[in-house]
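WARN  no MSA supplied for this record, continuing single-sequence
INFO  ligand: DQA
INFO  echoing inputs
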Amino acid sequence: MKIAVIQGPNLNMLGVREQHIYGGMTLDQIHAQLKATADQSGIELEFFQSNLEGEIVDKIQECLGTVHGIIINPAAYTHTSIAIRDALAAVNLPTVEVHISNLYKREDFRQKSLTAASSTGIISGFGPFGYHLGLIALMQVLNEIRTYQEEQSQGQEQE
Ligand code: DQA
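INFO  complex generated
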């Protein structure tokens, strides 16, 4: 099982940027911890970060047929990007949108996610631990899909 972890603009600045909001961990540290958790469950993670909207769209499109699910923090593009929302809808993969901060405790313009409607669910406000929660949620969704598909194929064999 393979999952893409896609990080949007300015998340490469974690550990430096607005530590009172995002904490002191760097993106590499977050990814290392996440990889350790994924390894224990035999899941392969592919990490990607870009500050460019089009590169994120390209990466989401590449996910089709190459990964089973997506964990994405579109960062500021959450609030502006119809292109990322459409790309997620196009590939239609199980997807968890993660936000380090609680969007609903922040400025009005952050309280609307354009991208969330294309996700299976969202996690917001648990700091970097939100990525772990996202991984657990995605593993659960992928297991449910696998169980359903196995039941369907067993049913067809019996017909
Ligand atoms: C963020 C929240 C966004 O509003 C902001 O633009 C970010 C990070 C978060 O993880 O809390 O860059 O997505």
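The mean pLDDT is 96.
INFO  checksum written, moving to next record
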